[in-house]
């Protein structure tokens, strides 16, 4: 359990660095790193739905750097559902699927403030899940993501042209 929390701590640092990025490309690369480290954390916590979901999220985030294809987006949403729903053992695990599907849509369909806002919803879903799971590292990561993302959204809004 301690080793899992150490891995969660490393993911925490990578994730915070990602969310501090105002540049979407740097944000996405940071999120890829975070996702794969977090997948190891969830496997160590025996949270299989979360581990599968966050692994798919890492691949999805990387692919979203290369393409914004709606077809690819639907492939990832379908893959997420097909690989996680059969593994559900508790209703709370569905939050990871809902949040991840919304995050997938955001990464392939939105950018800037709109993308970050949907990613905020994704973080809220994962935060609630991680608290219920008892994942200290995961809860701290998502709680920090929420705060960091809100700060970055504020900074982006502050420096965006008036519309």
TrEMBL record:
Organism: Vibrio paucivorans
UniProt keyword annotations, A-Z: Membrane, Transmembrane, Transmembrane helix
Name recorded for this polypeptide: YgjV family protein
Transmembrane portions of the chain: 28-59, 71-88, 94-113, 125-151
Pfam families: Imp-YgjV
InterPro entries: Uncharacterised_HI1736/YgjV, YgjV
